[in-house]
Amino acid sequence: MKRAHLPIETLPAWVKLNGIGVESVVFGTLGADHHENDTSGSSSSSSSSNSNKGTGIIATEDRAGGESALGAVDTGVLLKVPPDLILSLETVHGYAKSDGRLRAVLEAVGEFARTPRGAILIFLLMQITHSSPDCTGQSQAVGVAGPWTEYMKYMPREIPLPTFYSEAELELLRGTSLRLAVHAKLAALEKEFARLREATRGIDWCREVWWGGEDADPDGDDLEGDGDDDVAGEEAARLTLEDWKYVDALYRSRMVDLPTSGHAMVPCIDMANHSSEETVKALYDEDAEGNVVLQLRYGKRVRAGEEVTISYGDEKPASEMIFSYGFLDRETADAKQVFLDLDIPDDDPLKVVKKAFCKEPPGVRVYTSATDSESAPTTAWESSIIWWACVNEEDGLDFTVLQTNDGGRELKALWKGAELRDSAHLSELLRADPHWDIIQLRAVVLILERLETQAWVLRETGLMVSEIDENEDMRAMFRPDVYDMIKRLRALEMNLLGRGIEGLAMRRDELMASPAVSQYLGQQQPETAGAEDVSSQQQSEDVEDDFS
Ligand SMILES: C[S@@+](CC[C@H](N)C(=O)[O-])C[C@H]1O[C@@H](n2cnc3c(N)ncnc32)[C@H](O)[C@@H]1O
């Protein structure tokens, strides 16, 4: 669906009309590296720059948060957005009270519309539809237009999130933790969009405006049984998966978490770009009247012409910054976290029941646990599924089916007779078990293998990246900003994996030397050979067999 856009220079009129308080700032287009006192509005994208920042908030005069000037304290308030403009689960349902069309769509999608993301995405989609050049003459049919219908025209034409990467750019993610996340997200978006279509094509205006009118089959019946009805409908549809990806990307990159409104979008506040804690100037908050304010931090100064930034969260991993916001700060020196998929092996006879108990996503999180300027950062890992993967019936894990009072049946998991509540409870009991070192060693070996595989893929696909580096024609297939950023992500994640592997290998060696493990390995030898006869070579092979 085509979208309507307005130049950012016309935003002040919208701001005034809607009662937003603005003090000492303007909205403007920025280059990637906007410098102090630079209001040139350039949008340079030199090779040393980060991706283009788009629109931002720029100070028009010198201000100092919390400091006294002429006897009055500067509260540092730069923007004040009234509560009725906040887009949250509650306000979307508020709009729906006086807009039957919106209400019908929210009702049709059911549970999804009772989440902030679901309600807001549908609302945004309706605003885009209202002003789309594709729907001229039909906007009456789409329900009530409001301030957000106009505000949507100031949203970026393109959003640099990975859900919009080309096939070639997605290939560059191979070996990074972002690849898994992006593929899962794309699959989820496709599913959501199919459900939206299914749920709303029975609504007259949706069928007419979104799904291609008569070609859209309201009953989902394919009378000829050749699948053509659906295909024809999809081809004629004005609303496409790209539109759904667009509203999802808007929400992801502009959503704020407010103390009372919860997950919400706030016009104008969402024009604030990010900078790291050292250089950040402002923060957002809700005041006593429910307004959302953008405010200078206490003791922070801005000078006229300088960009006013907020922090999107300095603790966020590199992959998450790219996933949610589409950029990676130049100063980022650590991936901070890598999440890798890791599951119970298929040949585990208890896999199905174990998975019924492990509610957490099957994977392992490797993260930087401590940093100091003196030594290399240390890493740690966390995984719930690993404890289910490491123990079996012969160790003391058991599953049993109990008859409930109402005649139903309930599956129970037990560790050495004690009923298990969840993964955390299993891990707690394992830590207190006399065989803890042995179980731990199995976990460490499995995680080490997973990290080594990931590092291997990253290294192998790194060869492909080196080839692209050497070949201008190949490089032309990528947007320079995206190419450069993913190369940095690859290097950061390789560094974190390397540190993780080193730490785990050391831990494996420590555990192998533990008396409990030596004794256990001794017991695994044929009776003729005493534990002392087992050479270290043999022991290491046993560990490979027993612990992988
Ligand atoms: C909340 S919006 C900020 C307003 C946005 N620049 C616009 O044009 O509407 C977040 C988006 O701004 C961009 N952005 C914010 N801070 C950035 C930075 N430090 N470097 C590059 N892009 C940035 C990213 O595209 C991000 O997804």
Provide a count of the helices: 19
- Any idea how many domains? 3
- Helical proportion, percent range: 40-55%
Rg from alpha-carbon coordinates: 28 Å
Low-confidence stretches: 38-50, 222-227, 528-536
Strand order of the largest sheet: 1-7-11-10
Proportion of strand residues: 5-15%
Q: What's the overall average pLDDT, rounded?
A: 88
Distance between termini? Answer: 52 Å
Largest sheet: 4 strands, antiparallel
Number of strands: 18
The best one-word shape is: globular
Structural class: alpha+beta
Report the bound ligands by name, code or SMILES: S-adenosylmethionine
Organism: Aspergillus brunneoviolaceus CBS 621.78
Protein name: SET domain protein
Give a structural overview.
With 548 residues, the protein is α+β, with helices and mostly antiparallel strands. The protein folds into 3 domains: 8-84 and 266-318, SET domain (Beta-clip-like), CATH 2.170.270; 112-251, no CATH class; 337-512. Helix content is 42%, strand content 14%. It has 19 helices and 18 strands. It has helices at residues 11-17, 89-97, 100-109, 116-131, 147-151, 167-172, 177-200, 204-209, 228-236, 241-254, 318-325, 351-357, 385-390, 423-431, 436-470, 472-475, 480-512, 515-524, 536-547, and strands at residues 21-22, 25-30, 54-59, 63-64, 68-69, 72-73, 77-81, 256-258, 262-264, 282-286, 292-296, 301-302, 337-341, 363-370, 378-382, 397-403, 409-415, 418-419. The chain has a 4-stranded antiparallel sheet, with no helix packed on it. Strands 13-14-15 form a 3-stranded antiparallel sheet, covered by helices on one side. It has a 3-stranded antiparallel sheet with strand order 16-17-18, with helices on one face. The radius of gyration is 28 Å and the shape is globular. Residues 38-50, 222-227 and 528-536 have low confidence and may be disordered. The structure holds S-adenosylmethionine.
